[in-house]
Amino acid sequence: MNLKKSVMRYIPLVVFFISIGLVLSLWIMYIPIMRSKKVPGERKAIILCSANDFYRKDGEPDFDEGKFDNETTNWEGSFNPNGYGAVDITIPGHDTPGVVQLIVTAPATSKYVNMEFVYNWTKFYPLFKYAAYNLSAWVNITTNGWTPATIIPTGAGARIGLRWLNSSNDVVRTDWSKGIFDTFSGWTFLNSTGIADNSTKYEITQLHLVLAVEGNMTGTDMVLFDDVKVEYWFPPPIPSPPPSNIDSDGFPAQALQVYWILKNHGYTDDNIFLMLYHTNDDIIDVNAYDGISNDLTGAIIDVENNDVNSSRFKQELNVSISGSFASNIRPKDQLIIYMVDHGSNKILGDGNATFHFEADNDYITEFEFINLAKHISCRRILINIDICFSGNFLNQNSSIGLSWYDIPNSILITSTTDIFSWYWRDNANADGFAGSWFFHQFWNQLNQGQSIGAAFNFSKNFIPSGQMKAIDEIQAPLIHDNLGIKDSWGFNGNPQL
Q: Of 159, 184, 237, 397, which is most buried by a Cβ count within 10 Å?
């Protein structure tokens, strides 16, 4: 009995140690399982569009919505036998029959045509230093029987240009559109862009608009120019008079393109912070051919219109402010920062760049942005700066050398260097989209599964409608890969964008 009692007395102690052993064994076995089920980081993005217009200046006499009221008035050229300008009700125009057109016809004595229509812009309108000018026209190469014709390429073909001259009437340079030799698809859009930048030893004081044809034509061939327009824009600060109320989808369209592509690839609205300024513009059509007439429909906008200001953006990008977007980013997350609007290198007076906000006419400097972004601790960051002078915005000086700001674990991409960046104001162009010439193509390529590196290379080599040069020659986008993964990071890549 005494032995039995002794045994019974130790049973609880034995059970206790066995239980502890089992718990420890199970815990040790569970550790690898716990490790294998670690929650992965989240994919997050902040998208900022803080303006919806391009500060277009118009409304001066005989200049309506960027279009000449009478397209033949004050043009100079050899009208006959090489061409003429007149109202011709027998010739269908680009928009409606009976519209005034400038017409080039083949000479009777020779097949070779080399002529220009020239309009002295500065004889009638002021020329603004550093303004960006855009000349556009619709062209149709046809016969008097309204069948397609071809200019034999013994010259530059049909093209339009901005010709800059100095006070001595010397030509400083001419910014040409591409030259075309046929328009078998009907009326074709051409445009040429240039800046009154006085970047040569001869100060620019005059601007001439040029419609030109060079090549071999037969006796029935005609080149028709119609709907000739001039538009011009300024970087902020904006000189008077104030911008017009022209509907301008470009900036908000570009932001919405990025938003919908992220949604298409699994980003949730909880992880996308969309700041969108689109005041007086409730219909934004990104793409003319995608069957979607309003890309605002269904978009979840976190901050809208007048609340999209500099102080709010700085707040959301500040990790030290509780409840801000940046304060909720974790070390295992990845982040996309996309910013589109106007940029300037004039405001600070030292050549450094600023990013503009329409709502409060304020800005964030490159120093402020860098000091906020570099404190965001996450696995990797893709930063897209889509403004004029955007390369300057991410570089420590305006010489745009190798002095990129240090943002750890990042890929930095800009639409340009320290010069203007170009955009389609709406989708009424041959490219069929509203937004950035560079970043629209870049995000299209990402959407199709390309890596960041491949998308960048494709986009910088893209030639916009009406241009002779690739984007890389027009505005020179930049990329800086601190991570070394640009050729593998994409929506279908490893890591996954």
A: 159
